[in-house]
Amino acid sequence: MRLKPSKLQDGANSARSDDISRIRANLASWLNKRCGSDPLDPEDRVNRGLQHDVCGKLLCPIDFNWDDLDIRAAIRNGTSASNINDSFFLRCLYQNDTGNPEDLQHGFLRNILLRKMNGKVTGRSIAYTAVILVFNLTDAVQWTECHNGFDFRAFYEFIVDYFEDPRDNSSRQRVKALLQFWNRSVFPGRVATGDTRASSKRLASQCSSGDSMQTTL
Fold this sequence. Notes:
Elements (H helix, E strand, L loop, with lengths): L4 H31 L17 H7 L9 H9 L34 H6 L5 H15 L8 E2 L2 E2 H13 L4 H18 L9 H21 L1
Antiparallel strand pairs: 1-2
Helix pairs in contact: 1-5, 5-6
Protein backbone atom coordinates (compact mmCIF):
# COMPACT_ATOMS: atom_id res chain seq x y z
CA MET A 1 0.00 0.00 0.00
CA ARG A 2 1.35 3.39 -0.98
CA LEU A 3 1.04 6.28 1.40
CA LYS A 4 -0.35 9.52 0.06
CA PRO A 5 2.21 12.35 -0.22
CA SER A 6 0.44 14.20 2.59
CA LYS A 7 0.84 11.18 4.87
CA LEU A 8 4.52 10.90 3.99
CA GLN A 9 5.01 14.59 4.75
CA ASP A 10 3.15 14.21 8.04
CA GLY A 11 5.47 11.37 8.96
CA ALA A 12 8.55 13.38 8.05
CA ASN A 13 7.30 16.36 10.04
CA SER A 14 6.61 14.16 13.05
CA ALA A 15 10.08 12.59 12.89
CA ARG A 16 11.71 16.01 12.63
CA SER A 17 9.67 17.26 15.59
CA ASP A 18 10.78 14.27 17.66
CA ASP A 19 14.42 14.88 16.69
CA ILE A 20 14.19 18.57 17.54
CA SER A 21 12.70 17.85 20.97
CA ARG A 22 15.24 15.15 21.74
CA ILE A 23 18.22 17.26 20.72
CA ARG A 24 16.85 20.34 22.50
CA ALA A 25 17.03 18.42 25.78
CA ASN A 26 20.32 16.68 25.00
CA LEU A 27 21.96 19.92 23.98
CA ALA A 28 21.14 21.45 27.34
CA SER A 29 22.75 18.48 29.06
CA TRP A 30 25.87 18.69 26.89
CA LEU A 31 26.32 22.47 27.03
CA ASN A 32 25.28 23.33 30.58
CA LYS A 33 28.75 22.43 31.81
CA ARG A 34 29.92 25.49 29.87
CA CYS A 35 27.00 27.74 30.73
CA GLY A 36 27.76 28.49 34.36
CA SER A 37 25.07 30.70 35.90
CA ASP A 38 23.03 30.85 32.67
CA PRO A 39 22.05 27.22 31.99
CA LEU A 40 19.91 26.12 29.08
CA ASP A 41 16.39 24.92 29.78
CA PRO A 42 16.05 21.38 28.35
CA GLU A 43 12.34 21.97 27.74
CA ASP A 44 12.53 25.35 26.03
CA ARG A 45 14.72 27.34 23.62
CA VAL A 46 13.55 30.70 24.93
CA ASN A 47 16.90 31.75 26.43
CA ARG A 48 19.07 30.49 23.58
CA GLY A 49 20.23 32.25 20.42
CA LEU A 50 22.74 35.06 20.01
CA GLN A 51 21.79 36.65 23.33
CA HIS A 52 23.10 33.60 25.19
CA ASP A 53 26.90 33.70 25.47
CA VAL A 54 27.51 30.00 24.79
CA CYS A 55 24.85 29.51 22.10
CA GLY A 56 25.79 32.82 20.52
CA LYS A 57 29.42 31.81 20.21
CA LEU A 58 28.47 28.51 18.59
CA LEU A 59 26.13 30.29 16.16
CA CYS A 60 28.76 32.90 15.29
CA PRO A 61 30.58 32.42 11.96
CA ILE A 62 34.31 31.82 12.25
CA ASP A 63 34.92 35.12 10.42
CA PHE A 64 34.00 37.04 13.58
CA ASN A 65 35.85 37.15 16.90
CA TRP A 66 33.06 36.44 19.37
CA ASP A 67 35.41 37.03 22.30
CA ASP A 68 35.72 40.69 21.27
CA LEU A 69 32.90 42.27 23.29
CA ASP A 70 32.42 45.11 20.79
CA ILE A 71 32.02 42.66 17.92
CA ARG A 72 29.71 40.52 20.04
CA ALA A 73 27.52 43.52 20.82
CA ALA A 74 27.45 44.54 17.15
CA ILE A 75 26.36 41.05 16.13
CA ARG A 76 23.60 41.04 18.72
CA ASN A 77 22.42 44.50 17.74
CA GLY A 78 22.52 43.75 14.05
CA THR A 79 25.03 46.54 13.46
CA SER A 80 27.93 44.31 12.46
CA ALA A 81 29.79 45.42 9.34
CA SER A 82 28.86 42.14 7.67
CA ASN A 83 25.64 40.15 7.79
CA ILE A 84 26.42 37.01 9.78
CA ASN A 85 23.61 35.22 7.94
CA ASP A 86 25.71 35.41 4.79
CA SER A 87 28.01 32.72 6.21
CA PHE A 88 27.24 29.08 6.95
CA PHE A 89 30.69 28.50 8.44
CA LEU A 90 29.45 28.50 12.02
CA ARG A 91 31.64 27.68 15.00
CA CYS A 92 29.31 24.87 16.05
CA LEU A 93 30.32 22.99 12.90
CA TYR A 94 34.06 23.13 13.57
CA GLN A 95 36.31 20.96 15.67
CA ASN A 96 36.84 22.64 19.05
CA ASP A 97 34.43 25.42 17.95
CA THR A 98 37.28 27.07 16.04
CA GLY A 99 37.91 27.50 12.33
CA ASN A 100 40.30 29.33 10.06
CA PRO A 101 38.66 31.72 7.56
CA GLU A 102 41.70 31.21 5.33
CA ASP A 103 41.23 27.42 5.32
CA LEU A 104 37.49 26.87 5.59
CA GLN A 105 37.63 23.09 5.25
CA HIS A 106 40.04 22.54 8.13
CA GLY A 107 38.03 21.07 11.01
CA PHE A 108 34.74 21.67 9.15
CA LEU A 109 31.85 19.37 10.22
CA ARG A 110 33.99 17.74 12.92
CA ASN A 111 32.40 19.33 15.98
CA ILE A 112 31.77 16.88 18.80
CA LEU A 113 28.16 18.05 19.17
CA LEU A 114 27.42 16.91 15.63
CA ARG A 115 29.04 13.55 16.27
CA LYS A 116 27.06 13.02 19.47
CA MET A 117 23.83 13.62 17.59
CA ASN A 118 24.40 11.41 14.57
CA GLY A 119 23.68 7.68 14.48
CA LYS A 120 24.52 6.98 10.85
CA VAL A 121 27.01 8.49 8.48
CA THR A 122 26.15 9.91 5.08
CA GLY A 123 26.57 13.41 3.74
CA ARG A 124 22.82 13.99 3.97
CA SER A 125 22.53 12.63 7.51
CA ILE A 126 25.33 14.96 8.59
CA ALA A 127 23.59 17.87 6.85
CA TYR A 128 20.32 17.04 8.61
CA THR A 129 22.11 16.74 11.96
CA ALA A 130 23.75 20.12 11.40
CA VAL A 131 20.36 21.73 10.75
CA ILE A 132 18.88 20.26 13.95
CA LEU A 133 21.93 21.36 15.96
CA VAL A 134 21.90 24.94 14.70
CA PHE A 135 18.13 25.21 15.10
CA ASN A 136 18.34 24.08 18.72
CA LEU A 137 21.00 26.68 19.44
CA THR A 138 18.53 29.40 18.43
CA ASP A 139 15.64 30.82 20.42
CA ALA A 140 13.04 29.86 17.78
CA VAL A 141 9.69 28.97 19.34
CA GLN A 142 8.89 26.33 16.72
CA TRP A 143 10.33 24.89 13.54
CA THR A 144 10.66 27.30 10.67
CA GLU A 145 12.77 27.18 7.53
CA CYS A 146 14.06 30.69 8.16
CA HIS A 147 14.76 32.22 11.58
CA ASN A 148 16.16 35.72 12.07
CA GLY A 149 17.36 35.70 8.48
CA PHE A 150 19.08 32.32 8.67
CA ASP A 151 17.83 30.01 5.91
CA PHE A 152 17.88 26.41 7.15
CA ARG A 153 16.93 24.91 3.79
CA ALA A 154 19.80 26.71 2.05
CA PHE A 155 22.09 25.66 4.91
CA TYR A 156 21.09 22.01 4.46
CA GLU A 157 21.59 22.17 0.70
CA PHE A 158 24.97 23.84 1.17
CA ILE A 159 26.26 20.95 3.29
CA VAL A 160 24.75 18.32 0.97
CA ASP A 161 26.52 19.98 -1.96
CA TYR A 162 29.75 20.00 0.03
CA PHE A 163 29.61 16.20 0.18
CA GLU A 164 28.00 15.39 -3.15
CA ASP A 165 29.50 18.00 -5.45
CA PRO A 166 33.15 18.58 -4.47
CA ARG A 167 34.85 21.12 -6.71
CA ASP A 168 38.13 19.33 -7.37
CA ASN A 169 40.16 16.26 -6.50
CA SER A 170 41.53 17.86 -3.34
CA SER A 171 37.98 18.55 -2.13
CA ARG A 172 36.95 14.98 -2.95
CA GLN A 173 39.83 13.67 -0.85
CA ARG A 174 38.81 15.93 2.03
CA VAL A 175 35.22 14.71 1.84
CA LYS A 176 36.40 11.10 1.82
CA ALA A 177 38.63 11.73 4.84
CA LEU A 178 35.79 13.52 6.63
CA LEU A 179 33.40 10.59 6.17
CA GLN A 180 36.10 8.20 7.39
CA PHE A 181 36.57 10.43 10.44
CA TRP A 182 32.83 10.33 11.11
CA ASN A 183 32.71 6.56 10.78
CA ARG A 184 35.55 6.19 13.28
CA SER A 185 33.81 8.60 15.66
CA VAL A 186 30.31 7.13 15.45
CA PHE A 187 31.40 3.49 15.20
CA PRO A 188 34.74 3.43 17.09
CA GLY A 189 34.82 -0.37 17.41
CA ARG A 190 33.97 -0.99 13.81
CA VAL A 191 35.99 -3.60 11.94
CA ALA A 192 35.97 -4.40 8.26
CA THR A 193 32.46 -5.36 7.23
CA GLY A 194 31.60 -8.62 5.56
CA ASP A 195 30.41 -8.94 2.01
CA THR A 196 26.61 -8.78 2.17
CA ARG A 197 26.43 -10.29 -1.31
CA ALA A 198 27.46 -13.67 0.11
CA SER A 199 24.43 -13.76 2.41
CA SER A 200 22.17 -12.58 -0.39
CA LYS A 201 23.44 -15.32 -2.69
CA ARG A 202 22.97 -17.92 0.04
CA LEU A 203 19.39 -16.79 0.66
CA ALA A 204 18.64 -16.76 -3.05
CA SER A 205 20.07 -20.25 -3.36
CA GLN A 206 17.87 -21.56 -0.56
CA CYS A 207 14.80 -19.92 -2.04
CA SER A 208 15.61 -21.48 -5.38
CA SER A 209 16.06 -24.90 -3.77
CA GLY A 210 12.77 -24.53 -1.94
CA ASP A 211 10.97 -23.73 -5.18
CA SER A 212 12.51 -26.80 -6.80
CA MET A 213 11.41 -29.05 -3.94
CA GLN A 214 7.85 -27.76 -4.13
CA THR A 215 7.82 -28.43 -7.86
CA THR A 216 8.84 -32.05 -7.37
CA LEU A 217 6.32 -32.73 -4.59
